[in-house]
Amino acid sequence: MTATANRSPGRRAVTDHGSIERAAFTLFEEQGFDETTMEQIAEAVGVGRRTLFRYFPSKNDIPWGQFDQSLRVFAAQLAAVPSDVPVADAVHRCVVAFNDFDEPSLPQHRTRMRLILGTPTLQAHSALRYAAWRGVIENYVAARLDVEPDGLMPRLAGHVSLALAVSSYEQWLREPHSDLTRILQLEMDALRSYLR
Q: What is the pLDDT of residue 56?
């Protein structure tokens, strides 16, 4: 839903995450991430600052999109894997699925990942996002192995999975015609030796 039919006179149209992201990424490409302000993004979308901050608490959150929602889906996918599937296979499948995007969305995803991985001022915020992503894997592996999430194997699985995913993205960004899923499949195969 991008607008309400029964608005009060003078009330601005309701927006959505996608509209905000599109406007923000246009500004990021034109001006650079650091030079773009939340005020400029709000103006480009046609909403007030307060509305913008309801969707994204900070400018640093915009490149990450609806990442928290994606993490909930990721955790649910892991939880849905039958218990007879080996842990390494479950993590492999779900990490690849988490990073699998349909063909039409790949150009925007490439732009998003180039911004996230290539903007120094985003790195501290990205570390928080990476920790949350690792936490999903750590909690899953801990539950499957019946150990604490901060135990050796869960933490190793989370950190190695993240390293492999980031490495896959870096390779994919360097090779414009490469297949992200294929690269990630190959790299995730390496994780198996850590979880057996």
A: 96
**Alpha-carbon distance 28 to 185, whole Å?**
31
Q: What percent of the chain has pLDDT over 70?
A: 90
E strand map for 37-193: none
Cα 91 to Cα 29: distance, rounded to the nearest angstrom? 34
109 Cβ contact partners less than 8 Å away, ≥ 6 residues apart: 101
Would you state the structure tokens that stand for residue 138, as one six-digit string? 């750590």
Domains of the chain by range and CATH?
A: 17-61 (1.10.10.60), 66-195 (1.10.357.10)
In this predicted structure, the answer to whether residue 144 has a pLDDT above a threshold of 80 is yes
Average model confidence (pLDDT) across the chain:
91
Q: What gap in Å lies between CA 107 and CA 111, rounded to an integer?
A: 6
| Distance in angstroms (rounded) separating the CA atoms of residues 91 and 142 | 12
**CA-CA distance, 157 to 159, in Å (whole number)?**
6
